[in-house]
Amino acid sequence: MIRDLILKNRSYRRFDESAVMDESTLRDLVDLARHSPSGANLQGLKFILSWTPQKNAIIFPCLRWAGYLKDWGGPEAGERPAGYIILLGDTDISKNFGVDHGIACQSMLLGAVEKGFGGCIFGSVRRDELRKQLDIPEQYEILLVLALGKPVEQVMVDEVGADGSIKYWRDEQAVHHVPKRALDDLIL
Amino acid sequence: MIRDLILKNRSYRRFDESAVMDESTLRDLVDLARHSPSGANLQGLKFILSWTPQKNAIIFPCLRWAGYLKDWGGPEAGERPAGYIILLGDTDISKNFGVDHGIACQSMLLGAVEKGFGGCIFGSVRRDELRKQLDIPEQYEILLVLALGKPVEQVMVDEVGADGSIKYWRDEQAVHHVPKRALDDLIL
């Protein structure tokens, strides 16, 4: 059931870094993105894959982790992502990628969850640094980064409380809580 | 397998209009969107549902159908969508919805395919007309429209040919062909 997969697909930020990712897994995920909708079928997305400790170590510091957790700078060594997929927009094909990269991320995350992995979409990226470190040509706009690994954290979906806050938070057991708005509040 | 669902989820534009959609089905789909990733967990999307012939008839002419099929103005009566989900951005929550609406559409489309339906995402929408006809307050930005129904057309994924064209086309049997770039061409 797609619903089970969507419910299991939480934004995970702590992983078992020893559970390695390989190129074949990442290629499978990109192939899911390849078969997902693309505005005017332009297919302007390109992908950089990372699954080695060396390349992962370059990408990791280019990401800004969990804006609402002010006391947490990101996962410690050992709990960092085992792989990444960098989503680029090829400006030789289009100057506007619409929501193609969102669609692609959701397909790839659902594929990852089905394989026993999980991940988190990063829009907050040190793009200049990432471009420099990986020598990404100016032709490619850096859109999003998908961080992937085998999750070691528990994520709970809660109802938005009386204060109306949607900020995620962690309890004493390091369980990550994510307040979601009620269905009736989303439908006009 | 999520791959099967993603492969089956083509952009369908001709439907069996007699296969009716109901409110409960559409609400189930929005609940999939509700549990999908949202940038900074802001959850700024709102949804308008349509499943009655009267409301469907208002929405249909506000959509621009299949830009590459110059001789086709959209589906005839009897092959039109049985329902719609209009994705809005609530500007009281955010001014920038990132790719939330793309993520939401992919979740809802996969849910629709699993239920035996299918659909098409519309970014090309007569927004002023739609706003006026449905009396949508200015607070809500019209982001996308998802058209849904029981598909009656066959859609084939082809490889991009030697001419490099990604324009979809229809053959003599009205089979819809969609050229997709090769996986190796997407990975840098």
What's a quick, concise take on this entry?
By secondary structure, chain A is α+β, with helices and mostly antiparallel strands. Helices cover 28% and strands 22% of the residues of chain A.
Descriptors:
28% helix; alpha+beta; three-stranded mixed beta sheet; globular; homodimer; 188 residues; 6 helices; 7 strands
Structural summary, described in words:
Two copies of one chain form a homodimer. The mean pLDDT of chain A is 96. The two termini of chain A are 27 Å apart. The longest helix of chain A is centred in the middle third of the chain and has 15 residues, at 100-114. Chain A is globular and about 50 Å long. With 188 residues, the first copy, chain A, is α+β, with helices and mostly antiparallel strands. Helix content of chain A is 28%, strand content 22%. In chain A, 41% of the residues are buried. In chain A, strand 6 and strand 7 form a beta hairpin. Chain A has helices at residues 2-8, 23-34, 53-59, 100-114, 127-134, 183-186, and strands at residues 45-50, 83-90, 118-122, 140-149, 155-159, 169-170, 176-180. The first copy, chain A, has a four-stranded antiparallel beta sheet. In chain A, strands 5-7-6 form a three-stranded mixed beta sheet, with no helix packed on it. At the A-B interface, helix 1, helix 2, strand 1, helix 4 and strand 7 of A face helix 1, helix 2, strand 1, helix 4 and strand 7 of B.
